[in-house]
Amino acid sequence: MKIKFLGAAQEVTGSKHLLSLENGKKILLDCGMFQGKGMETDKMNRNLGFEPKEIDHIILSHAHIDHSGLIPYLYTQGFEGSVICTDASRNLCSYMLPDSGYIQEQDIKWYNKKLAKKGLPPVQPIYRHSDAVKAMKLFIGVAMDRKFRIDENISVKFTDTGHILGGAVANLEIKENGKTIRIAYTGDIGRPYNRIIKPPAPFPQADYLITESTYGDRLHEDKSDAEEKLLSIIVDTCVRKGGKLIIPSFSVGRTQEIVLLMNNWYNQGRLPNIDVYVDSPLSVNITEVFKMHPECYNDEVLEVLSYDSDPFGFEGLHYIKNVNASKKLNETTKPCVIISASGMAEAGRVKHHIANSINNPKNTILLVGYCAPTTLGARLQEPGLKKISIFGTEHSVRANIRLLEAFSGHGDYVEMADFISCQDKNLLKKIFLVHGDLPSAEHYRKYLLKKEFKNIEIPKLKDEFEL
After folding, report:
1. Dist CA 103 CA 118 (whole Å)
2. What single-letter DSSP state applies at residue 203?
3. Which of 25, 2, 20 has the alpha carbon at shortest distance from 467?
4. CA gyration radius for the chain?
5. Omega of the bond prior to 342 within 30 degrees of 0, cis?
6. pTM (2 decimals)?
7. Residue 143's CB: how many other CB atoms inside 10 A?
8. Distance between alpha carbon 336 and the CA centroid of its chain, in Å?
9. 382: CB partners within 8 A, 6+ apart
């Protein structure tokens, strides 16, 4: 059996790891989209490094687009196998993948207008909304902690990672040449405590471990400190200054966490009397998916449910789907909080809100998680930033730019190492560090070696290994 790394190798997007079995079967661990590099990203996404028709199964760790986003593209290129994931991941993908297709269609319209001005021919989106809807027929939802037999030689069991709703370690057992090879692919690892979902759980012993390193060189601040900082930023921006607080936030997980916090503060009488807008059709739909899966909730949220039937709703909270209602938010001068996708501020409605708000010193733009290099969210964090280009227009940066990384859904290097410490180090034949920039992965590798883990590889794109 061989494994080939075709994405998220020394970078943080495009997760794709190809297992090629000796009997000819091919299993893809995740099928993520590269993001954040403009039209260079487009070329990377189209050049897969394998023939989609030859893939038998995709094992999906979780629903984030950098892990799931190319499944519809594979479908358009002839993939007819199965996509195996948790029930919650399937339900999330049913909204997230069509939304991804829609965003591509809109982005391509804008890009083609630029090409037309240069006399160049138009290009097509990688896939469309309708392609993603059709691709959903390939999905098989599996309950967490239940072994699912794919065929007589392959089985998978999903266990909680605490990263997002439905996020899981894919624990594979593959029989080959009379022996069983155990592979654990963690996908993205959450923090020991998540405000909504269950924490990461110990997972079965593996022979080969493929695991992330996004925050391999960083430590998070204390969770409770970050929550109090968020409340103080709301008060400072909206009450003291009378401005707008713009929060770029991922539609899955991060938005619901922030809304839950505000709901709790509302119940406690601590939330200022201001309007809060969740301005993202996808976020609205995803919140409904969260309500469908109370089996994923941690004990604290279950306790809230005992006295509050809707932990994702309170007076003054408005969910915005309509595009005209979204545009009106740019016209309002009332102090308010706007939570909008995308989390890295690279696409979606939040980019318009930032462009509209960035030149007013009353306003704050609050980044609440990791932003990949080259994205707008990362560029906003540059020290001493005075001007920034958004939609091709240069803007003066007068708004306050703040960062709260403790809201990240990724564990830091100590938390990730603690998570994988359920493994017997002497039984692990090799560890592959993926989904992290090279400096981050190298720092994490050194830390793991100090913790007595051994045989740690940081694969490059297209590296292949025999298992």
Report:
1. 23
2. -
3. 2
4. 22
5. yes
6. 0.89
7. 12
8. 26
9. none
Cα(21)–Cα(225) distance, rounded to whole angstroms? 48
Domains of the chain (ranges; CATH) run 2-218+409-466 (3.60.15.10), 223-407 (3.40.50.10890)
Helix or strand or coil: residue 449?
A: helix
**Structure tokens given for 49:** 């490094």
Question: Which residue in the block uniquely carries the two structure tokens 């936030």?
Answer: 249
Q: Which structure tokens are listed for 221? A: 């601040």
Distance (Å, rounded) from C-alpha 467 to C-alpha 450?
25
Structure tokens given for 145: 């902690």
How far apart are alpha carbons 47 and 61 in whole angstroms? 22
Long-range contacts from 174-179, C-beta under 8 angstroms, 24+ separation: 174/1, 174/19, 174/21, 176/1, 176/21, 176/22, 176/23, 177/22
User: Which two three-digit tokens encode residue 430?
Assistant: 């090799």
Q: From first to last of its 467 residues, what are the pLDDT tens digits of the chain?
A: 999 999 999 999 999 999 999 999 999 999 999 987 666 788 899 999 999 999 999 999 999 999 999 999 999 999 999 999 999 999 999 999 999 999 889 888 888 888 899 999 998 999 999 999 999 999 999 999 999 999 999 999 999 999 999 999 999 999 999 999 999 999 999 999 899 999 999 999 999 999 999 999 999 877 778 899 999 999 999 999 999 999 999 888 889 999 999 999 999 999 999 999 999 889 889 999 999 999 999 999 999 999 998 999 999 999 998 999 999 998 888 999 999 988 888 877 899 999 999 999 999 999 987 787 778 989 999 998 999 999 889 999 999 999 987 777 899 999 999 999 999 999 999 999 999 999 999 999 999 999 999 999 999 999 999 99
- AA letter at 352: H
The Cα 356–Cα 349 span in angstroms is 11
Helix (H) or strand (E) holding 193, with range, is none
The candidate with the shortest Cα–Cα distance to 97, out of 248, 285, 274, is: 285
Q: What tokens appear for 339 in the block?
A: 């939570």
Q: What is the dihedral of CA 321, 325, 326, 331, to 10 degrees?
A: -170
Q: Answer for the pair 368, 344: CB distance below 8 angstroms, yes or no.
A: no
